[in-house]
Design goal:
Blueprint lengths: L4 E4 L5 E9 L3 E4 L10 E10 L7 E3 L1 H10 L5 E4 L2 H4 L9 E9 L3 H19 L4 H8 L1
Antiparallel strand pairs: 1-2, 2-7, 3-6, 4-5, 4-7
């Protein structure tokens, strides 16, 4: 398994992640979720094929979304096999990459945390000794 690339989303509680693996491996989404708390996983894009030649890559985004939707529970495994996705790059080592959003706070939790952030920012900015406090913090 390769490392996961995570990009912080401008929205609090949502991460944009990319997972990849080589042929005959598998990508597993949702394996690190706490029990009883389903993750909001939304596949943004997915492809299978030669990582260096876009002409030999197959866009499997809609098929990956269907596979995710067909599963009743997490985790969901995406095998990197030609049997599953076809063979867009014959006689080459193929790679599977899936980019997805992981929503780990629901709407009410996000709103509560954003309200808390606003309140903290307002209090800090209105403090008469802000400069002194910032120096102490540094």
């Amino acid at each position: 398994m390769d490392a996961i690339e995570t990009i912080q989303s401008p929205l609090l509680g949502i991460d944009c992640c990319t997972k990849g693996c080589w042929e005959y491996g598998a990508i597993v989404l949702g394996e690190s979720e706490p029990l009883g708390r389903p993750a909001g996983l939304h596949i943004l894009s997915a492809w299978f094929g030669d990582p260096d030649d876009q002409g030999c890559q197959k866009d499997i985004t809609s098929a990956a979304r269907e596979l995710l939707a067909s599963q009743n529970s997490l985790p969901v495994e995406f095998p990197a096999t030609t049997k599953m996705w076809g063979d867009p790059a014959r006689f080459r080592m193929k790679r599977l990459e899936v980019t997805y959003q992981h929503v780990w706070l629901d709407v009410s939790e996000r709103e509560a945390l954003q309200a808390l952030q606003r309140r903290v920012s307002e209090k800090a900015q209105n403090a008469p000794d802000l400069e002194e406090l910032v120096k102490r913090l540094g």
